[in-house]
Every structure is written in C-alpha cells, then in structure tokens.
Amino acid sequence: MKSSRREMLGLSVPLMLAASSEMGPLRRIREGEPSTKSGWRCVYQLDEKRHPVSGSDKELGSAVRRGADLRIYTEFRHNEHIDTASKSPELIREVADFRVTYLVENRWVAGIMTLRQPIDLPVGFGQRPSMSFFMCNQDGQQAIARPYLDGIPSTGKPGPSPLEDHRAMPKYRQLDGWDAQTNGPSSNFIYAFNTYKFWVRDEWEEVLAHDSHGKVLSGSAEALADRFSAGCEVKVAIRGLCADLSANTSDHEIFVQTGSGYYYTEQKLFIAASHPLVRVKPAIPMRYESRGWDFGWVMVRTDGLVARWLVDPYHLKFRRSEKQYAIRWFVR
Question: What are the domain boundaries of the chain?
Fold first, then answer.
C-alpha cells in the first residue's frame, strides 16, 4: 500500500483517519551570543535517532520561558517522505513556524503550527481544506490534528483508530490514531528526519506578570501600555489555559502572540486579542487524543480575565467561556 506525505497532507486518504513559571528580571538578548543577522539562534539539535548533537533542552526551555519565538529546521528526501513512488532522492530542507509554544512543568517544550493548510509538494494544496496542526516536542516526537473545513458530514465517533499501513515509508512510525471517521482526526508519530534544529528568536521582554485576579507580581500595566503605544508587539504566556481538557492536568504555560491591543487609560486596563491558538491536554510528551484538544482565540486582560472563543473540532461549533488566569506579558 502506497504511503507518503501526500497522504498525510490530504491529497489521498488522510493519514489522520486511521509551567510553574520562572519570574526572572526583564531581559534582552545577551551580548556575544551566537546568532544570525535576523536574531535567530539554534539552541538545540537532534540527529536522525533524536539524540542530542549540540545545545541543550534546558537552553531551549529557558528561551521559551522568556517568550522566545520557535522555528524548527528538518531535512528529508523527496522519495522517502513526500512521494514514495518517486525516483527522486532530492534532499529537501524545511523550516516550520511554530506560532504557539508550550512549557509544561516548567521544563518541557512543545510547539504547534497554527496557520498551516496541507501542502501537496511541490505543486500546491491538498484535496480537502483543513488546518494542519502539526506539533513537535523537544525530543522530536510529533503529532498532527486536522480539523476539516469543507463541511462534509462525518459518520464516525471519537475514539481510538486502527494504525495505517506505512510500510512504504520506513522512516515513519505511527504511535496511535484517534477519531478516524470524524471531522477532527489526529495521531501521534515519529518521522526520522535527518536532523532537527530548534531555532529561537529570543528578543521578547517581560514587562508585566500578574496572578489570576490581576494582582501584579512584577512590572506594571502602565509599562506595558507605554511600550504598546510606541509600536511594540505583544505576546502573552497564559498559565493553566488547558486545564479543563483533563481532570489530571500538568502545570503549563501556553505562549501566543496578540494582534490588536487596547488600553483603557483611566482604568489602567490593557486588553489584547490573540492570534489563533491550539489547546492541547498538557502532558510530557505532548500528544493529541480524543477530546483532548480544540482551537480558537482568546481575549486577555490585565485583570486576569480571559474570554475564550473556542471551536469544537468535531462539529466546528464555536462556544464562549470566561475564566481567570495568571498571565505574563512580553513586548518586542
């Protein structure tokens, strides 16, 4: 049975069918640290067997704790990963943008792609419109959740799914499958890329931290508002946002950049609307499973209130909710 990344990305039958935070001082990049002209640094690298080659997972965790952006570089052969029927062994380099990052138990990093539609390399897009919520852990274990966006009715119910036949792709090892015949299939797997390089852009500066009731622990809302008013971007780390996905959840922070921001000058209240995010039941390693994830947007406030506008991936139904969370605020 033919198996290739094209199946994973939606051209054929989709594969998916089958931190207690450290409140340190405000920080900029240290002088003398190796970096590219763009500010990106490779802080951790794994080989094909996912063994460390350089850097360290602690350095990666420290950077993400400071709000650093994350991109992951991998390498693979076209006829090993994209189209296993092809005769082309051409080496392909990939760098992916993981716009949402997690810090679990203040030590474990995972990142999720949140803006990606399935790509049919090298010609275009996959058959069915969907989101490709690829996730990668710091040890190289990977996962995918795929909510379909075309409205085709699904007949299945959430639950474990049989593993697919991937004998044509020996570097691919599927660990499990979930929700095969639903609108939101997912699976966890390991693809043995030639290398994994974890690149960070560590330029964010923490300007405010508060508890779930808005009590300031460090910095100030005024400092946040001043930097925002001067054109700075804003990112937040929300502690415990995914706790309601499991009765036995791990301590975690989820990091996401915001778009529009608003400052009420008399109330001294700052409000921001997030970029899209994916919530996943926090664990080590991070994994997808039935009813263990969703996606959507949040509106965050410096009094700790978070308005949640979340999507049920099985039916694409939006639901509203509000909760109080401890939040750290960063600017760049």
Answer: 5-199, 205-331
